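User: Reviewer 2 asked us to show a designed sequence for the structure in our supplementary figure. I'm pasting the structure tokens here. Could you produce the per-position amino acids so we can include them in the response letter?
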């Protein structure tokens, strides 16, 4: 490039021609008489930024055994479910990392539109996505499992109640707004959101009313299932940045759902009866015996087959998109006692710490813990009821302790839980 100067031999920018006296800073390049000013540097930087998109980072994975060990710190019981979930999530994100390995910056093509060569696969093997369906009683840990898994993997997480969704064009929340929640939780980092986890709860509530195809609109049931299909598999969705309905003049956020893991959950009340009826019809020879125990729901639900879910009311296309099924068991009294005391975020540990900050020692005796567990069982809400019971029992204590500096120890007994009797309070002798 020719040397740029002005009449008095003052150096000038080789790009825009402005002299050194008219710019803030003039940078000399190696060689003789080649310069660039600070404003041209800014223009070059902006142009590079516009045409370069950072390659997505891989997800930091733990082996399934280590993943389950991390889940054990927060979730009590459900060992088989945690094993199945750990393997499924590990395989999903191993596939994600495999596909990200050779994705070119700015490439927004759907995964199923890329060729094997574009994926960097020498053998032409394509790894398909396997979404997950969890079913089990209310309060058994479905939501907590999904939330904890996202924390372990450090990926964005969003949760939605399926009962709030409606088919596009009807009053209610559009299915695509689920993706907007994930983007918001990823601080609008679309690349990060595209590797996140979406948990859709109460999926059993959008089951169609019968196995027969409906000839009328079922906008909160079968219609929602149909709408979910396009985002659960692989698509590039156009999402209104502020939610709500779409209109032609609106700017959209474009998000590829190829690598988003969808976990569907629900209580699926009555599913065990469908499985039991199917198993009960299976006999060996004349007067043969039934295969397995058809009376215990915990023994029946792990034997769910796709035809059982279809009979329950899920459409076949949706069942095909959630090939991994995870059955969770109902929590027993002993499990609930462990939930109260063992996890890192156990409610009893939290209250012990809160009172310790006031210089007071808190103790729940064994009878109190059993009483809390039994009361929660009677509410039929699983582990959800534990916090409400403990908080009601601790309300007066938490109100009094900060003002009474003579209190040194508090012992909660079964009478406190069952009969609202004040706990034992030990004060400073002085």
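Assistant: Here is a per-position design you can include in the supplement:
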């Amino acid at each position: 490039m020719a040397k740029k100067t002005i009449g008095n031999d003052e150096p000038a920018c080789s790009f825009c021609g402005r002299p050194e006296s008219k710019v803030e800073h003039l940078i000399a390049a190696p060689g003789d008489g080649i310069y660039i000013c600070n404003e041209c540097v800014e223009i070059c930087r902006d142009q590079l930024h516009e045409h370069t998109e950072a390659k997505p980072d891989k997800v930091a994975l733990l082996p399934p055994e280590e993943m389950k060990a991390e889940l054990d710190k927060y979730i009590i019981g459900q060992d088989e479910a945690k094993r199945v979930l750990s393997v499924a999530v590990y395989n999903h994100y191993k596939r994600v990392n495999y596909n990200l390995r050779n994705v070119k910056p700015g490439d927004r093509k759907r995964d199923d539109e890329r060729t094997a060569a574009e994926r960097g696969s020498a053998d032409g093997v394509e790894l398909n996505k396997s979404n997950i369906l969890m079913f089990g009683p209310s309060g058994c840990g479905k939501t907590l499992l999904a939330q904890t898994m996202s924390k372990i993997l450090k990926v964005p997480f969003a949760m939605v109640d399926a009962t709030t969704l409606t088919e596009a064009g009807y009053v209610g929340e559009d299915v695509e707004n689920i993706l907007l929640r994930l983007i918001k939780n990823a601080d609008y980092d679309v690349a990060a959101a595209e590797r996140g986890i979406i948990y859709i709860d109460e999926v059993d509530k959008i089951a169609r009313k019968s196995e027969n195809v409906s000839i009328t609109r079922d906008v909160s049931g079968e219609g929602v299932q149909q709408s979910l299909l396009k985002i659960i598999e692989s698509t590039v969705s156009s999402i209104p940045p502020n939610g709500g309905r779409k209109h032609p003049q609106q700017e959209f956020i474009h998000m590829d759902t190829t690598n988003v893991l969808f976990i569907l959950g629900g209580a699926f009340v009555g599913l065990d009866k469908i499985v039991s009826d199917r198993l009960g019809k299976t006999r060996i020879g004349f007067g043969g015996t039934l295969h397995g125990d058809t009376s215990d729901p915990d023994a029946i639900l792990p034997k769910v087959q796709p035809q059982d879910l279809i009979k329950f009311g899920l459409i076949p296309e949706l069942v095909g998109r959630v090939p991994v099924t995870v059955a969770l068991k109902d929590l027993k009294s002993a499990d609930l006692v462990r939930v109260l005391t063992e996890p890192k975020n156990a409610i009893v540990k939290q209250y012990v710490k809160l009172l310790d900050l006031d210089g007071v020692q808190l103790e729940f005796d064994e009878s109190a813990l059993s009483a809390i567990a039994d009361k929660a069982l009677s509410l039929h809400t699983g582990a959800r009821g534990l916090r409400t019971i403990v908080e009601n029992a601790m309300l007066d204590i938490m109100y009094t302790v900060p003002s009474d500096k003579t209190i040194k120890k508090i012992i909660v007994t079964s009478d406190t839980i069952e009969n609202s009797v004040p706990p034992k309070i030990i004060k400073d002798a002085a």
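For the response letter, you might also mention the following. Residues 108-122, 213-217, 283-290 have pLDDT under 50 and may be disordered. The longest helix spans residues 79-100.
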